[in-house]
Amino acid sequence: MADRQITQQTIFSLLAKLDDPDADLRYMSLNDLYGILTNPNSSFLSHDRGTSTKLAEGLLKALDDQHGDVQNQALKCLGPLAVRLPFESLTPLLEQLANLTSSQTIDTSIPNTALRVIVDTLPRPQAGQPASQNATTAYSAVSKVLVPRLTGPTPSASGRRGSLVKGMMEKDPSKGFSSDAIDVLIKVVTCFGPLLQETELVALQASVMAIIQNDTAGTVVTKRALTAISALVLHFSDTQLNSFVSNLSATMSSSKISMVQRRHLIAAIGVIARTAPAKFGPHLDTLAPFVFSVVGEDNISKEN
Protein backbone atom coordinates (compact mmCIF):
# COMPACT_ATOMS: atom_id res chain seq x y z
CA MET A 1 0.00 0.00 0.00
CA ALA A 2 2.86 2.38 0.85
CA ASP A 3 4.47 1.73 -2.55
CA ARG A 4 1.16 2.43 -4.25
CA GLN A 5 0.73 5.75 -2.44
CA ILE A 6 4.28 6.80 -3.31
CA THR A 7 3.72 5.89 -6.97
CA GLN A 8 0.43 7.82 -7.02
CA GLN A 9 2.06 10.89 -5.52
CA THR A 10 4.91 10.69 -8.02
CA ILE A 11 2.45 10.38 -10.92
CA PHE A 12 0.46 13.44 -9.83
CA SER A 13 3.67 15.43 -9.33
CA LEU A 14 4.88 14.54 -12.83
CA LEU A 15 1.51 15.33 -14.39
CA ALA A 16 1.61 18.79 -12.81
CA LYS A 17 4.95 19.44 -14.50
CA LEU A 18 3.38 18.91 -17.93
CA ASP A 19 2.09 22.50 -17.63
CA ASP A 20 5.60 23.87 -17.05
CA PRO A 21 6.76 26.40 -19.69
CA ASP A 22 10.11 24.57 -19.96
CA ALA A 23 9.80 21.98 -22.77
CA ASP A 24 12.80 20.03 -21.43
CA LEU A 25 11.06 19.63 -18.06
CA ARG A 26 7.86 18.47 -19.77
CA TYR A 27 9.86 15.94 -21.77
CA MET A 28 11.70 14.61 -18.70
CA SER A 29 8.41 14.33 -16.79
CA LEU A 30 6.98 12.19 -19.57
CA ASN A 31 10.16 10.12 -19.62
CA ASP A 32 9.75 9.49 -15.89
CA LEU A 33 6.07 8.62 -16.41
CA TYR A 34 7.10 6.08 -19.04
CA GLY A 35 9.43 4.50 -16.50
CA ILE A 36 6.59 4.23 -14.00
CA LEU A 37 4.12 2.81 -16.53
CA THR A 38 6.55 0.08 -17.58
CA ASN A 39 7.28 -0.84 -13.95
CA PRO A 40 5.26 -3.59 -12.23
CA ASN A 41 4.57 -1.17 -9.37
CA SER A 42 2.03 0.64 -11.61
CA SER A 43 -0.15 -2.46 -12.09
CA PHE A 44 -2.61 -1.02 -9.56
CA LEU A 45 -3.74 1.45 -12.23
CA SER A 46 -6.03 -1.21 -13.73
CA HIS A 47 -8.07 -0.94 -10.50
CA ASP A 48 -7.63 2.81 -9.95
CA ARG A 49 -9.89 4.58 -12.41
CA GLY A 50 -9.24 8.03 -10.92
CA THR A 51 -5.46 7.96 -11.33
CA SER A 52 -5.59 6.23 -14.73
CA THR A 53 -8.07 8.81 -16.01
CA LYS A 54 -5.82 11.66 -14.85
CA LEU A 55 -2.91 10.02 -16.65
CA ALA A 56 -4.89 9.67 -19.86
CA GLU A 57 -5.96 13.32 -19.69
CA GLY A 58 -2.37 14.46 -19.14
CA LEU A 59 -1.05 12.44 -22.08
CA LEU A 60 -3.83 13.67 -24.35
CA LYS A 61 -2.88 17.23 -23.50
CA ALA A 62 0.80 16.47 -24.15
CA LEU A 63 -0.08 15.19 -27.63
CA ASP A 64 -1.01 18.79 -28.49
CA ASP A 65 2.33 20.14 -27.23
CA GLN A 66 4.15 22.55 -29.55
CA HIS A 67 7.38 20.57 -29.26
CA GLY A 68 7.70 17.40 -31.31
CA ASP A 69 9.93 15.64 -28.76
CA VAL A 70 7.28 16.10 -26.09
CA GLN A 71 4.56 14.80 -28.42
CA ASN A 72 6.63 11.74 -29.30
CA GLN A 73 7.30 10.97 -25.66
CA ALA A 74 3.58 11.22 -24.90
CA LEU A 75 2.91 8.78 -27.74
CA LYS A 76 5.48 6.43 -26.25
CA CYS A 77 3.64 6.51 -22.91
CA LEU A 78 0.25 5.63 -24.41
CA GLY A 79 1.17 2.02 -25.15
CA PRO A 80 2.06 0.93 -21.61
CA LEU A 81 -0.79 3.06 -20.23
CA ALA A 82 -3.35 1.31 -22.46
CA VAL A 83 -2.62 -2.11 -20.98
CA ARG A 84 -3.00 -0.66 -17.48
CA LEU A 85 -6.35 1.03 -18.12
CA PRO A 86 -9.61 -0.51 -16.93
CA PHE A 87 -12.24 -0.91 -19.67
CA GLU A 88 -14.14 2.09 -18.26
CA SER A 89 -11.11 4.32 -18.90
CA LEU A 90 -9.88 2.74 -22.16
CA THR A 91 -13.12 3.39 -24.02
CA PRO A 92 -13.22 7.17 -23.32
CA LEU A 93 -9.52 7.45 -24.30
CA LEU A 94 -10.21 5.81 -27.66
CA GLU A 95 -13.25 8.06 -28.14
CA GLN A 96 -11.28 11.23 -27.45
CA LEU A 97 -8.49 10.23 -29.82
CA ALA A 98 -10.98 9.23 -32.52
CA ASN A 99 -12.67 12.63 -32.18
CA LEU A 100 -9.32 14.39 -32.59
CA THR A 101 -8.81 12.69 -35.98
CA SER A 102 -11.47 14.98 -37.45
CA SER A 103 -9.99 18.16 -35.96
CA GLN A 104 -9.33 21.06 -38.31
CA THR A 105 -6.82 22.71 -35.96
CA ILE A 106 -4.23 20.02 -35.14
CA ASP A 107 -2.05 17.61 -37.09
CA THR A 108 -4.42 14.64 -37.30
CA SER A 109 -1.56 12.21 -37.92
CA ILE A 110 -0.84 12.47 -34.17
CA PRO A 111 -4.16 11.05 -32.84
CA ASN A 112 -4.14 8.46 -35.62
CA THR A 113 -0.65 7.38 -34.61
CA ALA A 114 -1.78 7.29 -30.97
CA LEU A 115 -4.67 4.97 -31.90
CA ARG A 116 -2.29 2.63 -33.74
CA VAL A 117 0.10 2.59 -30.78
CA ILE A 118 -2.73 1.71 -28.37
CA VAL A 119 -4.32 -0.96 -30.58
CA ASP A 120 -0.92 -2.54 -31.19
CA THR A 121 -0.23 -2.73 -27.44
CA LEU A 122 -3.57 -4.16 -26.31
CA PRO A 123 -3.91 -7.90 -25.61
CA ARG A 124 -4.94 -9.69 -28.81
CA PRO A 125 -6.11 -13.18 -29.76
CA GLN A 126 -3.37 -15.70 -30.51
CA ALA A 127 -3.55 -18.00 -33.53
CA GLY A 128 -4.94 -21.42 -32.73
CA GLN A 129 -5.95 -20.49 -29.19
CA PRO A 130 -9.23 -19.33 -27.62
CA ALA A 131 -9.23 -15.58 -27.01
CA SER A 132 -8.23 -14.67 -23.46
CA GLN A 133 -10.48 -12.57 -21.26
CA ASN A 134 -8.08 -9.62 -21.61
CA ALA A 135 -8.11 -9.91 -25.41
CA THR A 136 -11.91 -10.10 -25.44
CA THR A 137 -12.14 -7.01 -23.23
CA ALA A 138 -9.72 -5.10 -25.47
CA TYR A 139 -11.71 -6.12 -28.56
CA SER A 140 -14.91 -4.90 -26.90
CA ALA A 141 -13.43 -1.41 -26.54
CA VAL A 142 -12.15 -1.41 -30.14
CA SER A 143 -15.48 -2.72 -31.42
CA LYS A 144 -17.46 -0.14 -29.46
CA VAL A 145 -15.40 2.89 -30.49
CA LEU A 146 -13.10 2.39 -33.47
CA VAL A 147 -15.05 0.09 -35.77
CA PRO A 148 -18.07 2.44 -35.93
CA ARG A 149 -15.79 5.44 -36.52
CA LEU A 150 -13.99 3.60 -39.32
CA THR A 151 -17.18 2.53 -41.05
CA GLY A 152 -19.22 5.70 -41.24
CA PRO A 153 -20.70 8.68 -39.46
CA THR A 154 -21.66 8.12 -35.83
CA PRO A 155 -24.10 10.05 -33.61
CA SER A 156 -22.48 13.03 -31.96
CA ALA A 157 -21.85 12.94 -28.23
CA SER A 158 -23.61 16.32 -28.04
CA GLY A 159 -26.90 14.45 -28.16
CA ARG A 160 -28.44 16.87 -30.63
CA ARG A 161 -30.92 15.19 -32.93
CA GLY A 162 -29.43 14.46 -36.32
CA SER A 163 -25.94 15.56 -35.25
CA LEU A 164 -23.28 13.22 -36.68
CA VAL A 165 -19.51 12.87 -36.37
CA LYS A 166 -17.73 12.28 -39.67
CA GLY A 167 -16.32 8.80 -40.18
CA MET A 168 -12.52 8.50 -40.15
CA MET A 169 -12.50 6.91 -43.62
CA GLU A 170 -14.73 9.52 -45.23
CA LYS A 171 -13.30 12.03 -47.66
CA ASP A 172 -12.57 15.42 -46.14
CA PRO A 173 -13.51 18.30 -48.48
CA SER A 174 -10.16 20.03 -47.97
CA LYS A 175 -7.78 17.18 -47.10
CA GLY A 176 -9.16 14.27 -49.11
CA PHE A 177 -8.99 10.71 -47.81
CA SER A 178 -6.77 9.97 -44.83
CA SER A 179 -4.05 7.35 -45.29
CA ASP A 180 -3.52 7.58 -41.52
CA ALA A 181 -7.10 6.43 -40.91
CA ILE A 182 -6.57 3.49 -43.28
CA ASP A 183 -3.47 2.56 -41.27
CA VAL A 184 -5.62 2.51 -38.11
CA LEU A 185 -8.05 0.17 -39.86
CA ILE A 186 -5.19 -2.10 -40.95
CA LYS A 187 -3.92 -2.23 -37.37
CA VAL A 188 -7.39 -3.08 -36.03
CA VAL A 189 -7.79 -5.91 -38.56
CA THR A 190 -4.25 -7.21 -38.03
CA CYS A 191 -4.65 -7.33 -34.25
CA PHE A 192 -8.30 -8.25 -33.82
CA GLY A 193 -9.34 -9.78 -37.15
CA PRO A 194 -10.24 -13.20 -35.68
CA LEU A 195 -12.71 -11.54 -33.28
CA LEU A 196 -14.37 -9.17 -35.75
CA GLN A 197 -18.02 -9.99 -36.41
CA GLU A 198 -19.17 -10.54 -39.99
CA THR A 199 -21.25 -7.35 -39.89
CA GLU A 200 -18.12 -5.43 -38.87
CA LEU A 201 -16.05 -7.03 -41.63
CA VAL A 202 -18.72 -6.17 -44.20
CA ALA A 203 -18.83 -2.55 -43.02
CA LEU A 204 -15.03 -2.22 -43.01
CA GLN A 205 -14.90 -3.76 -46.49
CA ALA A 206 -17.41 -1.20 -47.76
CA SER A 207 -15.35 1.70 -46.35
CA VAL A 208 -12.16 0.42 -47.98
CA MET A 209 -13.73 -0.38 -51.36
CA ALA A 210 -15.32 3.08 -51.48
CA ILE A 211 -11.78 4.49 -51.53
CA ILE A 212 -10.43 1.94 -54.01
CA GLN A 213 -13.29 2.75 -56.40
CA ASN A 214 -12.94 6.52 -56.03
CA ASP A 215 -11.33 8.31 -58.97
CA THR A 216 -10.03 11.11 -56.76
CA ALA A 217 -8.16 8.92 -54.28
CA GLY A 218 -4.44 9.60 -54.50
CA THR A 219 -1.77 6.99 -55.15
CA VAL A 220 -0.64 6.71 -51.52
CA VAL A 221 -4.18 6.38 -50.20
CA THR A 222 -5.10 3.81 -52.85
CA LYS A 223 -2.05 1.68 -52.02
CA ARG A 224 -2.93 1.72 -48.33
CA ALA A 225 -6.55 0.81 -49.16
CA LEU A 226 -5.30 -2.14 -51.23
CA THR A 227 -3.24 -3.29 -48.25
CA ALA A 228 -6.35 -2.95 -46.08
CA ILE A 229 -8.56 -5.08 -48.33
CA SER A 230 -5.87 -7.77 -48.49
CA ALA A 231 -5.80 -7.84 -44.67
CA LEU A 232 -9.59 -7.99 -44.43
CA VAL A 233 -10.09 -10.83 -46.89
CA LEU A 234 -8.10 -13.18 -44.66
CA HIS A 235 -11.00 -13.07 -42.18
CA PHE A 236 -13.90 -13.33 -44.66
CA SER A 237 -16.19 -16.33 -44.35
CA ASP A 238 -16.91 -18.28 -47.54
CA THR A 239 -20.28 -16.56 -47.76
CA GLN A 240 -18.79 -13.10 -47.41
CA LEU A 241 -16.04 -13.87 -49.93
CA ASN A 242 -18.62 -15.11 -52.44
CA SER A 243 -20.61 -11.91 -51.98
CA PHE A 244 -17.46 -9.79 -52.33
CA VAL A 245 -16.48 -11.54 -55.58
CA SER A 246 -20.04 -11.19 -56.95
CA ASN A 247 -20.03 -7.45 -56.27
CA LEU A 248 -16.55 -7.10 -57.75
CA SER A 249 -17.62 -8.99 -60.87
CA ALA A 250 -20.76 -6.89 -61.26
CA THR A 251 -18.77 -3.66 -60.95
CA MET A 252 -16.12 -4.83 -63.42
CA SER A 253 -18.87 -5.77 -65.89
CA SER A 254 -20.31 -2.28 -65.83
CA SER A 255 -19.60 0.02 -68.75
CA LYS A 256 -19.94 3.03 -66.44
CA ILE A 257 -16.72 2.63 -64.46
CA SER A 258 -13.69 4.66 -65.49
CA MET A 259 -10.34 3.23 -66.55
CA VAL A 260 -8.86 4.47 -63.26
CA GLN A 261 -11.49 2.58 -61.26
CA ARG A 262 -10.93 -0.52 -63.39
CA ARG A 263 -7.17 -0.34 -62.73
CA HIS A 264 -7.75 -0.03 -59.00
CA LEU A 265 -10.12 -3.01 -58.99
CA ILE A 266 -7.64 -5.13 -60.93
CA ALA A 267 -4.99 -4.13 -58.42
CA ALA A 268 -7.37 -5.28 -55.66
CA ILE A 269 -7.75 -8.65 -57.37
CA GLY A 270 -3.96 -8.91 -57.54
CA VAL A 271 -3.24 -8.14 -53.88
CA ILE A 272 -5.99 -10.45 -52.66
CA ALA A 273 -4.75 -13.29 -54.90
CA ARG A 274 -1.24 -12.86 -53.43
CA THR A 275 -2.42 -12.57 -49.84
CA ALA A 276 -5.00 -15.37 -49.76
CA PRO A 277 -4.35 -17.65 -52.76
CA ALA A 278 -6.09 -20.67 -51.25
CA LYS A 279 -9.27 -18.71 -50.45
CA PHE A 280 -9.27 -16.77 -53.68
CA GLY A 281 -8.24 -19.54 -56.05
CA PRO A 282 -11.75 -20.94 -56.66
CA HIS A 283 -12.86 -17.48 -57.86
CA LEU A 284 -10.14 -16.94 -60.47
CA ASP A 285 -12.30 -18.34 -63.28
CA THR A 286 -14.80 -15.58 -62.52
CA LEU A 287 -12.35 -12.69 -62.20
CA ALA A 288 -9.43 -13.57 -64.47
CA PRO A 289 -11.29 -12.64 -67.70
CA PHE A 290 -11.71 -9.07 -66.45
CA VAL A 291 -7.94 -8.82 -65.93
CA PHE A 292 -7.06 -10.33 -69.30
CA SER A 293 -9.54 -8.12 -71.13
CA VAL A 294 -7.82 -4.99 -69.85
CA VAL A 295 -4.27 -6.11 -70.56
CA GLY A 296 -5.18 -7.19 -74.11
CA GLU A 297 -3.44 -5.57 -77.04
CA ASP A 298 -6.38 -3.40 -78.03
CA ASN A 299 -6.57 -1.78 -74.58
CA ILE A 300 -2.82 -1.33 -74.40
CA SER A 301 -2.82 0.48 -77.75
CA LYS A 302 -5.68 2.70 -76.59
CA GLU A 303 -3.75 3.65 -73.43
CA ASN A 304 -0.69 4.49 -75.53
From TrEMBL:
Key words, A-Z: Repeat, Ubl conjugation pathway
Matching InterPro entries: ARM-like, ARM-type_fold, CAND1/CAND2
Claim: Ligase is one of the keywords in the record: no
Tree of life domain: Eukaryota
Tagged with keyword Nucleus: no
Biological processes, Gene Ontology terms: SCF complex assembly
Protein name: TATA-binding protein interacting (TIP20) domain-containing protein
